Amino acid sequence: MKLIRCERGHYYDSQQHSRCPSCGVPGLDAGNSDAQMQAAPVDAMVTQVRGQAGVADIGVTVAMVRKKIGIDPVVGWLVCIEGPEKGRDYRIRSERNGIGRGADMAICINGDEAISRENHAYISFNPRKASFRIAPGDGRGMTYLNGEEVDVPMPLLAYDRIELGQTHLLFVPLCGEQFNWENQGE
Fold first, then answer.
1. pLDDT at 90 > cutoff 60
2. How far is CA 173 from the centre of its chain?
3. pTM here?
4. Of 17, 34, 14, 35, which is closest to residue 26 (Cα–Cα)?
5. What CA–CA distance (Å, rounded) separates 54 from 176?
């Protein structure tokens, strides 16, 4: 997937759309002069998908684990057990991971319109304490942990259930007391 950013800041898949679908059809007079703007040169506005092979993350904050060991390894997973993407897994990386529908989210959950586009919730991994936490995001939607509302950051334990919109996720940690990427080779 090759994401393009239009002049108005929308991201879209250039392989599916020739122009930004959010900006409307050029030449169609619907009272919106912005929709008639000329498209900017495509090469100047190409962006990247996080984790896309062969593309450097320019201007992106780098996690401390990545700085120390050279990669941004997986530290755990979320597995969709109910919802539009049932059966799919999502990788959790070190430090803070935003969850939302947007393609630029660290954990992008497509197909569930009840999940906010950006930062519905956060899952973080603290490499110093080898612990996970879940926190509410900036979005309108609620987040639940084992049926309880998440209104402040809360510890996340193995096989906890997380609900976002219509999606139910199971948390599966990799790092913890028995394994941590930072302690490898010591």
1. yes
2. 18
3. 0.65
4. 35
5. 30
Spell out a b/e string for 62-79, using b for 16 or more CB atoms within 10 Å of the CB, else e: ebebbeeeeebbbbbbbe
Q: What are phi and psi for residue 99, nearest 5 degrees?
A: -115, 130
Tokens 């490499």 identify what position? 127
pLDDT higher than threshold 50 for residue 49: no
What's the CA gap between 86 and 102, in Å, rounded? 18
- Could you tell me the CA-to-CA distances from 171 to 73, 74, 160 in Å, in that order? 17, 13, 5
What is the share, in percent, of the chain residues with pLDDT greater than 70? Answer: 73
> Sign of the CA dihedral 89, 170, 116, 129?
negative
16-20, 88-92, 164-168: segment of lowest average pLDDT: 16-20
Do the bridges between strand 95-100 and strand 107-108 make them parallel or antiparallel, or are there none, so unpaired? parallel
Place of tokens 């992106």: 60
d(CA 11, CA 15): 12
CA distance 26 to 155: 49
